Amino acid sequence: MIMALVYPLVLGLDRLETASFLRSNGTFPYLTGLPSFPDPQTLRRFLHQAPDSFRQQMHRVNDRLLQDFIHLPHHRSRLILDLDSSVVTVFGRQEHAEVGYHPRYRGKRSSNPLWCIEANSSYLWDTELRPGNAGTWNGSVEWMATGLLNVPRDIRELRVRADAGFGFHPVPEDSGSSVHSICGGGPPDSGIQAMAAGLTV
Asked: For the chain, which terminus, N or C, has the lower number of CB atoms within 10 Å?
């Protein structure tokens, strides 16, 4: 069941429903060794019933894979992490569904996840699920506490880019590590700099 969740991610499929076409693909089971591909509802039920420890374990696996994949096909010495938030419309009473700012559907419930993407590889470095009424900067401190610590030790320079919304909250004084930040395309932001305090890359 876990591999049925991993393979769609490797293929770049962002939703369980999108991966349903793999059920009728005869080549996919042959290449992966899976006897069949589960129905999307089966996968949803599996995730819904999984304990919190499962999510933490999957997060650790993802972090370990990033340590290796980030250096492929060539070894790298610099990373650029793009920090951003997004509005995702939610139907029904799902977890973290709240009415907040929505550019298209005013008054609709939504979530406002925090994303961190490595710019050159497009790898998802880290993410945080937040309610739809969360401020742009909400959760940034918690993200920095984990996201930056996953940076490989042999990375000599790290740049964090974010839009102006992250500059309103005292989010990384210089930590002694080569962390540079740009907020809204302007000069290094003192909030982002403060967030990195105490972290060693």
From this structure: N
Q: Whose CA is closest to 5, among 30, 27, 22?
A: 22
State the residue for tokens 């042959």.
30
| pTM, to two decimals | 0.66
φ, ψ dihedrals at 114, nearest 5°: -100, 125
Higher pLDDT, 137 or 72: 72
DSSP string, 120-148: TT--EEEEE--BTT--TTTTHHHHHHHHG
Q: Which amino acid is at 92?
A: G
To which residue do tokens 């991993």 refer?
Answer: 6
| Structural contact between residues 90 and 109, judged by C-beta atoms closer than 8 angstroms | yes
* % of residues, the chain, pLDDT over 90: 0
Using the 8-state DSSP alphabet, how is residue 149 labeled?
Answer: G
Residue 180: its pLDDT value, please?
Answer: 60
Q: Under 8 Å CB-to-CB from 135, ≥6 apart: which residues?
A: 165, 168, 169
According to DSSP H, which parts of the chain are helical? 2-10, 27-32, 40-49, 52-69, 140-147, 190-195
